[in-house]
Amino acid sequence: MNPQYAPQQQFGMPPPQSFPGSRASPSQGIPPTSFQTVPLGPQKPGPPQQPPGSAPFPPAPGSTPNMGPPSGQFPPNMPNLRSQVPPSQLPPSMVQDQRPPGFPPTQFAMKPGGPPPGAQNGPPQFMNGPPQFQNGPPHVQNGPGFGPPPTSTPSLPPQVQPPAATNKPPGPPPPGQLNQPHPPRPGQPPLPNQPPFQPPSTNQAPFSQPPSSNQPPPGSQPSFPQPTPTQSAFSQPPPSNQPPVSAAPPPTNAPPVSAPQPTSQPPVPGPPVSQPPPGAGKPPLLGQPPLPGQGQPPLPGHGQPPLPGHGQPPLPGHGQPPLPGHGQPPLPGQPPLHGQPPLPGQPPLPGQPPFNQAHRQSQFNQGPPGGPMPPNRQYNQPPLPGQPMPGPNQPPLPGQPPLGPNQLANQMQGMNLGPGRQYPGSTINGEGGPHMPPPLNQQQYMNGQQMRAPPGPGYPPMPGQQPAPGGGVGSYPQPAYQQPQQARRLDPDQMPSPIQVTQDDQQNRSGIFCTNQKGLVPPLVTTNFIVQDQGNSSPRFIRSSMYNVPISQDIMKQTAVPFSLVISPMARTVDQEYPPPIVNFGDLGPVRCIRCKAYMCPYMQFIDSGRRFQCLFCKATTDVPAEYFQHLDHTGQRLDRYERPELVLGTYEFVATPEYCRNNALPKPPAIIFVIDVSYNNVKSGLVHLLCSRIKDIIQNLPVDQGQEKSNMRVGFITYNSSVHFYNIKGNLAAPQMLIVGDIQEMFMPLLDGFLCTPEESGPVIDSLMQQIPAMFGDTRETETILLPAILAGLEALKASECAGKLMVFHSSLPTAEGPGKLKNRDDRKLLATDKERTILTPQTQAYNQLGQDCVAAGCSVDLFIFNNAYIDIATIGQVSRLTGGEVHKYTYFQADMDGERLIKDVITNISRPIAFDSIMRVRTSTGVRPTDFYGHFFMSNTTDMELAAVDCDKAIAVEIKHDDKLSEEEGVYIQAALLYTSCSGQRRLRIMNLSLKTCSQMADLYRNCDCDTIINYISKQATYKLFEHNPKAVKDSIVTRAAQILATYRKNCASPSSAGQLILPECMKLLPLYVNCLLKSDALSGGADMTVDDRSFVMQEVMIMDIPTSVNYFYPRLIPLVDLDPTQDPVEIPAPIRCTVDKMNEQGVYILENGIHMFLWIGLGANPNFVQQVFGAPSAIQVNIETVALPELDNPLSLAVRTIVEEIRIQRHKCMRLTIVRQREKLEPVFKHFLAEDRGTDGSPSYVDFLIHMHKEIRSLLS
């Protein structure tokens, strides 16, 4: 990823770690093999291991709740029990908004900023409100472990002057201020028998991050958990006159601390008070420091002594005696008040800058002069001297019983706060939002009652200190992806997760999807659903980026959401779905509008007693042909509408008449011609022998048309090296005949009859030919090959036979032999990812483009199967495939014994899938909008018609639609895509796909009805296309700018008011930042010198033809854990994927990572030997043979289950991906980690968290 995305030091990140443009080097804090040093802990919930030499603190009577146990007590590596973590320990940074399908903004508290209007003195909205979150919020879609419902913002003015300047005596907070909890009523005793809350004990909520590599061993000196607010947000070491943090740690197995308290804070007798005192803040959330003045023990000199055993002097300037009202002891059992300004003349605490906007950003990385850095930097920064902070997984504080899981669960669900507009039936700003924890500084309420917040890790606030405005001080202070050295400040588990989103959609929207409503947003492509066509085309055939179209171009410009369609005209239907019915009007032909030529569809309105119909696309009226006339019923509908698919369905086919055919003659069945390179490379690799031995199996799989019993497609064979050889395989010949064309300058077809035959009639002759070819060329020494004349030979053969068809070309090396289409080697991978990359990504000659256009004109599609051992210039030769609707399959360093099976499966898939030949596609729209830009593999000779020599079920085309007039709000937008094609049986047909969308004048309606996957598929195709004309930095910058504009416009116009420090995302676009980052990091857009030029051209071509299910999986790969596989399942199901990050992996695991092009099987060094033995046939992970490309076929249920899963993934992806086995900490691991989409890239491209920070900065700059 290029440096232009770097978040600057504003985020409190040290400069060397902001998005370096080059590969990470040791100086960046990420060792080049950073994975090696990460001891990844177990992922499953389970009792954590107690480290030797540590024991939880026993409760000590009389001890105060704000003294933490030594931090060396919590285990270094604990399982992920996030579902039991109190909200107080989830990172505050991000808050997700969740509303009904409507306004679901997802909010993140990211930067300090002002409160929303009305937050200052408004009554607390949820005081006596409905118990929205009491027993598990109904709206939390993203499962356990995602933070508590968010809040809007702390109620503070946007800019607070430095505390020292405050010259107003402190007063009570304004009544009703939301972040002030309610004090106990006068005279009301604390609730009896209620222990105070405290952080969960060690067996509750461990970290999910790996411990840092420089952490002390258990039982030795304590490590320090999340920093206290005053240091961590600003990265300052303690003042120089204090001893370093680790100078005097409490002994690990010391007795409980119960030192007497000095007079300023006497120990409190009697039962502990269960309600928090006025102003007690919530504890800091895991992964992010508390705000200053909110969650940490008072410094010495502020009315509380230093902790025992740490005899530091008070901090300079903080030793004044408290003023009246400031230093009095709090109520019994209650920590001091907070939320009051510091005393007049008192400087801010060390490490805490004055909160004025101008200084906030520049101060993050400065330390006081001369301050030594403390030695032990475990989690970003150490706590202040003398203050060990309880970490999220520590034993309970002295004198406090551990929290039960139920209390924790209730606590997580009991928060709902925040001013702002309330939408009916929704939660405020996405309260209950699935992914985001709340910003700090809010109190918890349930059923209108204040929840008891644990004084645990948060500690009482310092007297006399203002909380920071905006909720998340200094928002995102550290770079988030430095795996071994520092734990992330922001917990990535709180970011919107595609895993959670797909699971929620699967849960809520699987089953039957009925297409009877205009503008109905379909389920996600990852969801298993069955389409019932009732007037709109199935989303498998056509998807729109928006289902509510703004009525004016102005709204479109402001929101920047693209209006695009992604069309897969031949997509497969699933079981229980009907294929599109075929309608035959005989000689009449399809009924069409007289003006715009739209085909009869459910949107046509019959008038004048059924004698005429009005077209909804262009409003013209057309006479109904006499043969098609039918009377209308009392509602104006035709009496026969339910007998006519074209009047009630969204997708159907018409049989075409001769005027829709070439030369006005009905077509012959299409043919497939195998064009095989028999030069030295292909013979030596075993390819020629393999193909010839398996051709019989391959041609058994020719596609069968709907309603037919067998295929009537024909096949032909051509071989070539430096000349071209045709074969006559007529069924009545005793042996095949070979005809050689030596003059490759003037290619012609030497035989007419007998070149194309069906496998049935010529079976024996084909068998005989397949035995002869390997023998004829077995000892060839031809190394120079041609390519263009061989493709031209196939084209001439189809022309001579007067039929459409497809060439399957098996080619091995750069065509350097003298002749048409000769290419020179211009391989220079150093140019990739630079401004000059397009010189090697665009064709070096126009000969192949011209050949592609000639092929399209004859209905001849070309699929290239490439078997290169060196540079072959896919950018140039691939143009033939691009223009003819074909594709390139690449098998670099092909060896028949290792890759043969994979190739044969791919050829069979290619040849057998549903396909349309010799086709033309046009998209018509209703007035006010029109299609303008088209992306995919096809040729356009005019501005409206896409010519595809072939299009199959796995290819998609993206079409951008633009306004050319204002729309009316009542009408809607109507779209009709028509594909005219020849079927595999030779029937000329029209496939019609109709889609109706709503129109809207409110932006909120647009944002409520978008399809993020379609947007990303479209943007990826558009960006890939732009790379041929613009420099890569400009292309990627424009994507980020557009995404920021989409989200900023939503924030400004649709989200309820809240602090600028929160990132708010619309519900249906909450994954947009993640997917945009994945797109920017993908090889297609950013592939640099670490890949070959051919690889880069190949993935760019792949992205151009991807349908949406393929692109979703390509940009965010699936990471599938195998260790907990249940082999007894029947059938074996692919385990649920996990988030695509190294944080979710551990070295006891075995994982499959696949993105549709690559498939890796990663084996952790600590993997269960029993699993390894059963699956790999080796006693331990270190002995597994990683050179193999297939798993051994062992006779046990586990081996069978794992092999079934690998096979199932290949079937889903329509490609037999090569299986690459990767062992932890070995040479291939960096390649594997390159595809972990949420992590920082090896090239310095940002992690998901880093990119969110960057996006938030972009959005804020747009808003300001």
From TrEMBL:
Region Disordered, annotated ranges: 1-491
Location in the cell: Cytoplasmic vesicle, COPII-coated vesicle membrane; Endoplasmic reticulum membrane
Domain Zinc finger Sec23/Sec24-type: 590-628
Biased amino acid composition, Low complexity: 203-212, 476-487
BP GO terms, sorted: COPII-coated vesicle cargo loading; intracellular protein transport
Composition bias, Pro residues: 42-62, 146-161, 169-199, 213-228, 236-353, 382-404, 454-466
Keyword Transport in record: yes
Every Sec23/Sec24 helical domain range: 1011-1112
Domain Sec23/Sec24 trunk stretches: 667-910
UniProt domain Sec23/Sec24 beta-sandwich: residue ranges: 916-999
Entry GO CC: COPII vesicle coat; endoplasmic reticulum exit site; endoplasmic reticulum membrane
Compositionally biased tracts (Polar residues): 1-11, 24-37, 441-450
Keywords (A to Z) from UniProt: Cytoplasmic vesicle, Protein transport, Transport
Membrane topology, as annotated: Peripheral membrane protein
GO molecular function: SNARE binding; zinc ion binding
Gelsolin-like domain location: 1134-1198
Highest rank taxon of the organism: Eukaryota
Family per record: Belongs to the SEC23/SEC24 family. SEC24 subfamily.
PANTHER family referenced in this protein's UniProt entry, alphabetically: SEC24-RELATED PROTEIN, SECRETORY 24CD, ISOFORM C
The protein's name: Protein transport protein Sec24C
